[in-house]
Amino acid sequence: MDFSNRLKHLRQKYKLTQGELAAVIGLKSTAISNYESKRNEPSFDKLISLSDYFNVSSDYMLGVTDNTLRIGSEDLDNDTADFFILYKRLNKVNTNEIKNYARYLLYKQEKLAESLKDLRT
Q1: 77 Cβ partners below 8 Å, 6+ apart?
Q2: pLDDT interval class at 76 (50, 70, 90)
């Protein structure tokens, strides 16, 4: 899906008219129409504003990826992104093993927190 289609999809998902979205981003009312019809493309600043407004990555807006998460932001830090890249390379058996190990680590973490809480009381 390209930028014009992503923009239209997101605008409709948020139930906005082209004029309403333009006003929010600080554009003339015809700008969104021009973006959606491929007559114009946004500047980098406007692309970032649109991405921020819809809380998606610029790569998603541009159609580079179908992943909406923004790496390096509050949505997805670099360590987590690196983990996801590794995780996606694993086969089904190993992804299940990772999930089970994560559940075990959470269990240990909760038990430790309970033990520390008991010591304080």
Answers
A1: 71
A2: low
